[in-house]
Amino acid sequence: MVPLIYVCDDDSHIVRAICMKLKKAGLEVEGFRDGFSCWEKVQQQAPDMIITDLQMPCMNGIELCGKIRNFPNTQTIPVTLLTGKGFEFDHDEYMQTLKINNVMVKPFSPKKLLIQVQESLNITNDVIA
Amino acid sequence: MNSYGKYWLLVLLLLVVSCADNLLITNQLVSPAVAFVISLIASLAGWFWLVKTIEKDRNQIASYLRNPGLKRPGFQRRNFFGNVFAEAIQKIEDSGSELVSTKQVKTMLKARLNTSLKKELLMESVIKNLDYGILIFDAQHELEFSNPAAGPFLMDEASHNQNYSDSSLSLSKALTNNSIIPELAKLLAKTFERRDATLRRRAEFDLTSNDSTNYYRAVATNLWDENLSILGTMIVVENIGEEQNEKTKHAEFVSSVAHELKTPMSGIKAYVEMLLDGDCDEQEAQELYGFMNDQIDRLTRLVNSMLNLARIESGVIEIKRHDYELNDILKTAADVISPNAAEKEISFITELSDLYLPVHVDNDMFGQAIINLLSNAVKYTPNGHEVRLRSRMEDASAVIEIRDTGMGIPEKSLPHIFERFYRVPENNGSAAGTGLGLALVHFIVTNVHNGSISIQSKVNEGTCFNITIPLGHQEKKKVRRVASPAIV
To answer: Which of the following CATH numbers is that of domain B318-470: 3.30.565.10, 3.30.450.280, 3.20.20.140, 3.40.50.2300?
Structure first.
């Protein structure tokens, strides 16, 4: 079964770029522009992994992650956080308290993001193919 | 006749009487008894005259002593006891002078004392009213003086013991001082113990009380006497809350700039990498080039807006305020925006005051502010809706109103609308923007033109900005004409 990934970022270009990269790798991807619409979809259909931006309207990445971790059906979903913040953002704190699997600082490499996704899902290109 | 002359005359008279007596007795012209009587009368007369003269001199001296303002008698020349009196008078006069100078010294000392007391009171009042906390310790680290502002840094013994239950804090005697908070005790100890290294030391700390945190900077300075023996230590504590706020704001600004720059850069980097890796076909590649071009335009807009704001805020751009007719500036701004409005089939209406509205503004800056507001109105108003520009006189002010029937701004966003990089989340995707345009408008209106700007908005109904600036020309030349109403 092809893993389903939700990508959430208020910048349409970033959503588009990630979706293109992951789709090319054979993954099923759906994009969202804010945390709230992503959370609504998560409740309807839990994905295999979520990639979310930190700063977003309506519901930011931390709030979205908090909700995912507090909901029994979704609390084990791997989450990768994208952020434009640098030193002022305490990665370790959130990685521990919200069990965020990875943090990628913008500008990031889609190739590295794909590798992280594959590691998180314990899959390889061969498996997807 | 001088004073001695009188006495010599008396002696001469007595000698003449005595000689006359002898002659009369020798020539037996008178009997010895008569001669004795004559001598006696002459002597008595002489002594009587002498006594009278002395009495007169005495009275003269007594009068002078009673009233030193009188002319001083010439004792040496006219008086038998002149020398003695003169010497006595001189001594009395010297004593008088000494008395006068003593009185003067006393008055002067009194005046100095008063001045010192006043200065002391003044200094005390200054120190009492200082915003800086001042604490002065003696050489044994005992608190000698503290002003009211130092209150938050003092503590009672109970709280001190509680704080210092940790025995590892044995830096110096100062830590056992039970009158000041631990942060200052440590600073005091370091300043005293390492006095050879530096004269003064500083420390920054924060105190939390009633759920609010205050930030402080303390500077401790050792005090020395002339012989280089230490007298004590002075600690001056300054509240650096505002400075800290400024630092936080600056850090937030830098963080916002970095975030705003990183977002388009992320898009570009992702697209470039995908193109390099051959992840897309020819058609997709063309699409990605277009996206990258958009992102580069976004970066350029952002950098230009930041530069504009920085230049205006820092005063690099010279403010050239002159007398203008407000409606002229508004008409020029309207002409710039009209094509954009026409493109979106927006009805752009200008209702300018019939009155002559004299203003003293920087034409370029103020015009830019109006263009920014009109441009926003057009950007966030759907096709076929309406944007209206009005001007009017209100009391001693000119009011400019820019109203649209666009998507409006949620109430929660209104307090942040003039903040740098703030973009209304709900409208973020509707139009390209940097989040700096309204910050620039706010600065131009309030800081450059001493005006004010307000906003009313309702979601799905529209937004209205009101700018108020002082009315009146400030240059001497007077150009009076009546503006004609215009509808574009």
So the answer is: 3.30.565.10
Query: A107 and B265 in contact by Cβ < 8 A?
Result: yes
Contacts of B286 in chain A (CB under 8 A): none
- Is residue B217 within 8 A of residue B238, CB to CB? The reply is yes
Binary contact (B262, A84; C-beta < 8 A): yes
B426 in contact with chain A, both atoms CB, cutoff 8 A: yes
Q: What is the DSSP string of B287-314?
A: HHHHHHHHHHHHHHHHHHHHHHHHHHHH
B155-162 contacts: CB < 8 A, separation 24 or more? Answer: B155/B179, B155/B180, B155/B181
> How far apart (Å, rounded) are the C-alpha atoms in residues B81 and B287?
134
Measure B273 CA to nearest chain A CA, in Å: 7
Class of domain B245-313: mainly alpha
Q: What is the mean pLDDT of chain B?
A: 83
Option in A58, A84, A106 nearest B425 (CB): A58
- Tell how strand B386-394 and strand A102-105 pair up: unpaired
What residue ranges do the domains of chain A occupy?
A: 4-120
CATH H superfamily, domain B130-239: PAS domain (3.30.450.20)
Note the pLDDT of residue B462.
93
Nearest CB to B255: which of A33, A34, A85? A85
**Closest-CA residue of chain A to B292:** A13
Amino acid (1-letter code) at residue B245:
N
Q: How far apart are CA B185 and CA B203, in angstroms?
A: 11
Judged by a CB distance cut-off of 8 A, whether residue B265 touches chain A is: yes
Rounded to a whole number, what is the distance in Å from the CA of A115 to chain B's nearest CA?
14
How many whole angstroms separate alpha carbon B78 and alpha carbon B86? 11
**Topology classification of domain A4-120:** Rossmann fold (3.40.50)
Polymer length in residues for chain A: 129
Cβ A20–B274 below 8 Å, yes or no? Answer: yes
Of B258, B263, B269, Cβ closest to residue A11: B263
Q: Find chain B residues with C-beta within 8 A of A125's C-beta.
A: none
Amino acid B164: pLDDT: 45
**CA-based max dimension of chain A:** 40
Which helix (H) or strand (E) segment is B176 a member of? none
CB-nearest partner of A13 from B267, B279, B284 = B267
A33:B429 CB<8 A: yes
pLDDT at B208: 86
| Chain A positions in Cβ-Cβ contact with residue B274 (cut-off 8 Å) | 17, 20-21, 110
Residues of B with Cβ-Cβ distance to A16 under 8 angstroms = 291
pLDDT over 70, % of chain B: 87
Q: Give residue B392's pLDDT.
A: 95
Q: Cβ of B143: how many Cβ atoms within 10 Å?
A: 18
Give the Cα separation of B307 and B171 in Å (integer): 51
In which residue ranges of chain B is pLDDT below 70?
A: 1-6, 68, 72-82, 156-178, 428-433, 476-488
Q: How many A-B residue pairs are in contact by the CB < 8 A criterion?
A: 75
Residues whose CB is less than 8 angstroms from the CB of residue B16 and which lie 6 or more positions away in sequence, other chains included: none
